[in-house]
Design goal:
Number of helices: 16
Shape: globular
Strand content: under 5%
Largest sheet: 2 strands, antiparallel
Distance between the termini: 24 Å
Radius of gyration: 22 Å
Number of strands: 2
Structural class: mainly alpha
Order of helices and strands: EEHHHHHHHHHHHHHHHH
Strand order of the largest sheet: 1-2
């Protein structure tokens, strides 16, 4: 285990991916069981006092965007790894393998988004992955520099957007504001401060039958894929994937760094990025979760997300290297090997938990109470992944994805 590899797999990568897939659920659960905008603003739904406030605060500082950033960087790392294996194999070539994988990821992601979870990340990865593949052989420093440049440009865009929104708000609030200014602000502010009636409509529809939930989900997916994905999610994913490719080539995810180097990442992440993020979270709370303030400060939280995510990864990588708590790391590695299946299975479980055609708990659990569902899903993932892989070659959805990419049925059962 200390080498970080088993056969043609890296246990270290699988373990970090397993941790990320668990961590992502801490934030996704909010959008799965509460009105959409509660994901951004706890004052909108789900509670923002007492245990609910602390649940929001801890997640805001330690997991919100951090685990997704880590998962995205791992996608970039996998792009390089899978292309290298394809080059050494006798089957499909690297480009054919990569773009077939993206095509079927896009198809599965669209089904997932509309029928299970509007916050789907697969479609974003499929589209972002188109752009990174031609650059997979660049030097690591160049890849990381490109990634940082993309994320910096995205930060600049968001700062400009925030300034524009603030100017529109001032114009609409001015005495005697003209109808055009009022209308422009009303349209622009919808994404940062939607009416409470929209949240109530979501509660009614998600507690309804399958088709009512589908209608609500379709409305949100359409908004996300047309208004947010092109200008926010895809550029962010591209930047983080570039960083992931570069870090993989330096050996970060495969225990190629020294303990001192991992310790430096941990020190920067927990000693600098976490306090900065915590201060911004405190300012958000101090404002009473005022929508414009919340939006502006969350823009500044974006740069710390990949740094904190890499600090989390560094802790786990040092644990894997030391062969400490193997019972936990082996379970995480199994969960990571089946990340695709576990991601989709989580959506199936939470659908049946929250929607009206299941237990109908949508909108009924507070932020803190939702943690019970999260822990139950974690237990399921950690319990089923390892024994499943002892019997089967792949997770069920990995097997389906692989069979579609190869366009022939892949071996599934392991030999006795």
């Amino acid at each position: 285990m200390a080498t970080g590899a088993a056969g043609d797999r890296h246990i270290s990568i699988d373990a970090v991916r397993g941790m990320a897939i668990l961590g992502i659920q801490l934030m996704n659960i909010v959008g799965m069981g509460l009105p959409t905008f509660a994901y951004l603003n706890p004052a909108y739904a789900g509670g923002h006092e007492g245990a609910d406030l602390w649940t929001w605060a801890i997640n805001n500082v330690l997991t919100d965007g951090k685990m997704r950033a880590l998962f995205t960087m791992l996608f970039g790392a996998s792009t390089v790894l899978i292309a290298s294996r394809a080059e050494a194999g006798a089957g499909l070539g690297p480009a054919q393998t990569h773009y077939r994988r993206l095509f079927w990821m896009f198809v599965i992601g669209m089904v997932h988004a509309y029928f299970l979870w509007f916050g789907d990340i697969l479609v974003t990865y499929a589209l972002a992955g188109i752009f990174i593949f031609p650059f997979r052989k660049l030097k690591p420093r160049v890849q990381i520099a490109i990634g940082v440049a993309v994320l910096t440009a995205l930060l600049g865009y968001h700062l400009f957007e925030t300034a524009t929104l603030e100017a529109m708000k001032v114009a609409a609030s001015a005495p005697g504001a003209n109808p055009a200014a009022l209308s422009a602000w009303q349209d622009a502010s919808f994404l940062i401060n939607p009416p409470a009636a929209m949240g109530q409509l979501e509660i009614e529809q998600f507690r309804g039958n399958f088709f009512q939930a589908l209608e609500a989900r379709t409305r949100v997916v359409t908004l996300l894929q047309t208004a947010i994905m092109p200008t926010d999610e895809i550029p962010e994913a591209i930047g983080q994937m570039f960083i992931g490719m570069g870090l993989f080539q330096t050996g970060f995810f495969t225990l190629g760094w020294s303990n001192r180097a991992y310790g430096t990442v941990i020190a920067i992440g927990y000693g600098l990025a976490v306090p900065v993020t915590a201060i911004l979270a405190w300012l958000i709370w101090k404002s009473g979760f005022e929508p414009m303030t919340l939006h502006a400060l969350e823009v500044w939280q974006a740069p710390t997300r990949p740094i904190i995510g890499l600090a989390h990864a560094s802790v786990l990588l040092m644990i894997v290297r030391a062969s400490a708590i193997p019972a936990v790391t082996e379970r995480l590695a199994a969960a990571g090997r089946m990340a695709f299946s576990n991601y989709l299975m989580t959506s199936i479980i939470t659908n049946l938990t929250f929607c009206g055609y299941g237990l109908g708990l949508y909108g009924q659990l507070s932020r803190f109470q939702q943690l019970g569902v999260v822990f139950a899903v974690w237990a399921f993932i950690l319990i089923w992944s390892k024994p499943w892989l002892a019997r089967f070659q792949y997770g069920p959805f990995e097997w389906l994805w692989r069979s579609l990419v190869q366009w022939k049925r892949q071996p599934f059962l392991k030999a006795a």
